[in-house]
């Protein structure tokens, strides 16, 4: 650690969203004379990261804001951080009237088709409840909503005849309009119901590569097909797509669901064929598992559901959907790693931003240690890893020469505008062998081919299919 002076300030109860804090942190880090800077909420994870960075962190609460700077002139850097945060808080000039302060007051002010809730999890339930009680469908981008609250919202929504997408719904597309993390997709005949954001992105991106578009993507939250929630939103979303004349086939995506819930959801009488893209049966317990709360799910089957058996992975589900539509299955693009000599790897380490992609990779690889950096434990008070690569950059630096690092990079609106700018140097600098799943379409703003070239030049093998990336990583052992 250098001898530059540091400053760490605590602002009591000064909440800012994680994307704003990440941008301010980056701006400070790029100032001349600044060695390290981090502006973040005082969660346990962020406090531990700051201490690992060598900062002396005063007593604080998770609802406090921390501004930590090590620089030639730390006071000036702190002043710049506060100026930028004040600029974010300043109301727009020329506003005609006070904007509504609650969902209820906004719904009363004028007509709306959909409510999008993106607040700290402890407040999201009440805003979503306002939307449902107003008879409006709602997408809850927020995580941190309790499972009992989720169940209550979805029971009320069923009674009101509206759809609750979420909580922790990161991806949706309604009539071609992307919400949350959204890839650029062409319109087409496939509707998607997804208890997984990155799972939906993998499926729709592969469909796009095959020249098949989508009608709608309805995210329902990662817990929807659990026994506690009972698939309430998934069942309603399937019925909604079944009534949509533009939808000819539906793909249902989920991490391992509760078997009885999956059977009930797929056992509905629908006119539109449904392809289950339900990961399982997982061998995660023996494989090391995906590091996230809840642990591995048991093996299961859908033999009583009356429909096709679920595919083994998301790529196979897409291929099943293409065959059902009478479309050819293409070769999924990949970019092999440049030739080189490295020690033969012995183990797989998964560094994932998408929980479903991580679970799929653990299932396909059959061994290794996988971390879901998109889990609530890592995102509370900081931006999602699809936006902020910091934790994965640090993990790449810790990897050893006998490791195969298996990771995802997800493109599209809402994601990092240039992930290779930060992650490719980290890939080039790690002694590990890197295998990367690049999830995106040729229409995405990051330029998929430029991203692939940058990661390949850094030494990674790049795949558009996460399952194929996992198989390749396994083959290297």
From TrEMBL:
This one is known as: FdrA protein
| Superkingdom of origin | Bacteria
What lineage, starting at the top, does this entry show?
Bacteria, Bacillati, Actinomycetota, Actinomycetes, Streptosporangiales
Q: Which Pfam families match?
A: Ligase_CoA
Limits of the ATP-citrate synthase/succinyl-CoA ligase C-terminal domain: 351-474
* Biological process terms in GO annotation: tricarboxylic acid cycle
GO cellular component terms, semicolon-separated:
cytosol; succinate-CoA ligase complex (ADP-forming)
- Composition bias type Basic and acidic residues, residue spans: 83-92
- For region Disordered, the annotated ranges are 83-105
């Amino acid at each position: 650690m250098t001898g530059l002076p540091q400053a760490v300030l605590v602002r009591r109860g000064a909440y800012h969203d994680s994307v704003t804090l990440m941008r301010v942190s980056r701006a400070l880090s790029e100032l001349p004379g600044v060695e390290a800077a981090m502006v973040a909420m005082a969660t346990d994870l962020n406090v531990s990261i700051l201490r690992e960075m060598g900062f002396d962190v005063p007593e604080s609460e998770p609802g406090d804001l921390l501004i930590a700077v090590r620089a030639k002139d730390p006071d000036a850097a702190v002043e710049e951080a506060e100026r930028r945060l004040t600029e974010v808080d300043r109301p727009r000039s020329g506003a005609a009237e006070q904007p509504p302060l609650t969902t209820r007051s906004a719904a009363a002010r004028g007509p709306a088709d959909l409510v999008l809730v993106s607040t700290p999890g402890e407040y999201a339930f009440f805003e979503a409840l306002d939307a449902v009680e107003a008879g409006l469908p709602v997408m809850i981008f927020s995580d941190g909503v309790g499972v009992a609250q989720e169940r209550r919202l979805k029971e009320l929504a069923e009674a009101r005849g509206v759809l609750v997408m979420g909580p922790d719904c990161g991806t949706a597309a309604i009539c071609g309009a992307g919400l949350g993390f959204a890839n650029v997709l062409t319109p087409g005949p496939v509707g998607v119901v997804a208890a997984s954001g990155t799972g939906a992105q993998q499926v729709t991106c592969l469909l796009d590569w095959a020249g098949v578009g989508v009608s709608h993507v309805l995210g329902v939250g990662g817990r929807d097909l659990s026994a506690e929630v009972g698939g309430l939103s998934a069942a309603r979303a399937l019925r909604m797509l079944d009534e949509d004349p533009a939808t000819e086939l539906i793909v249902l995506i989920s991490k391992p669901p509760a078997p009885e819930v999956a059977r009930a959801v797929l056992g509905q009488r629908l006119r539109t064929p449904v392809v289950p893209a339900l990961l399982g049966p997982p061998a995660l317990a023996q494989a090391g598992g995906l590091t996230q709360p809840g642990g591995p799910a048991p093996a299961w089957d859908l033999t009583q559901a009356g429909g096709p058996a679920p595919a083994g992975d998301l790529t196979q589900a897409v291929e099943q959907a293409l065959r059902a539509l009478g479309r050819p299955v293409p070769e999924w693009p990949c970019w092999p790693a440049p030739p080189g000599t490295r020690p033969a790897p012995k183990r797989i380490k998964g560094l994932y931003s998408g929980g479903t992609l991580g679970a799929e990779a653990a299932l396909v690889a059959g061994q290794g240690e996988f971390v879901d950096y998109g889990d609530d434990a890592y995102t509370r008070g900081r931006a999602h890893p699809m936006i902020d690569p910091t934790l994965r950059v640090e993990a790449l630096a810790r990897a050893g020469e006998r490791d195969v690092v298996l990771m995802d990079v997800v493109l599209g609106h809402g994601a990092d505008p240039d992930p290779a700018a930060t992650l490719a140097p980290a890939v080039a600098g790690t002694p590990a062998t890197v295998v990367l799943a690049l999830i995106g379409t040729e229409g995405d703003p990051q330029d998929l081919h430029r991203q692939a070239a940058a990661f390949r030049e850094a030494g990674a093998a790049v795949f558009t299919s996460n399952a194929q990336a996992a198989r390749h990583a396994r083959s290297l052992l």
